[in-house]
Amino acid sequence: MSLSSKKDSSKHGKQINMLRRDTLRYLAMGSITLISGLLKPISVLAKWNKAAFSSVDFDEAIVAYFPGQEIDESEQINIGVHSIVEDGAVVPVKVKTDLPNIESITIFVENNPNPLIASFNFTTNCVGFISTRIKMQNSSNIIAVVKSEGALFSTRKFIEVHEGGCG
Amino acid sequence: MASSIRLKTKIRDGVTTVRAIIRHPMETGFRIDSETNEFIPPHYINEIVIKHNGSVVITCDWSRAISKNPYLSFMFEGATIGDKVELSWTDNRNNVDSTETLIK
Lengths: 167, 104
Prior knowledge:
Chain A is α+β, with helices and mostly antiparallel strands.
């Protein structure tokens, strides 16, 4: 096919050549992505979202982590944390939710240097519960975003911090 | 060297509670070394994978704002006594560690 198109160099032949070149290019791109995919370590399920984690603004972090998705307020999420915290270096946080089929729980602290704190991605047989300890620099809202059946829900709680724990 | 991870599991009414404490500095990069007056470079765990009998139960993406010597607890269903639970972590310097335990 390529030979004949070279011989007559008609418009049609050129088109085929272009098509072939494009196909080859896409094939090459595909195989590169495939190989880089194979070289990746264990993190097959979720890729560490560098843009969202290094973002310094709360709204930016939300957009970077959940691009183009709407988040509704929900009363079915409970953030278990003391409302007054002495030491911001160790703030125990529990997030509980009754929402069905939880896919992920993500924790943000609005006034931290990097507001995105942690994201926990579940498989289907997990209970809507997570408990961990985080650092807070200032008094701030803690926002928990829960992904349930493909939709996002959030709730927030204001925490007073007496001594910052980031520096 | 002893493992950096302490992993405990408990099963009650078909729900398994997993609790883990990992020994790790979780340096933010914001702290200043009082002797050298320089920033201590960031060093923190950013990925955790927990598996039950070889299949992934939960993956965690963490920032440096998780406290030093991180604590993590969660619950899942569908396990029985004697099943294997495995936790592995990776930090921003690509150090890794993992441990496994049997559900009691």
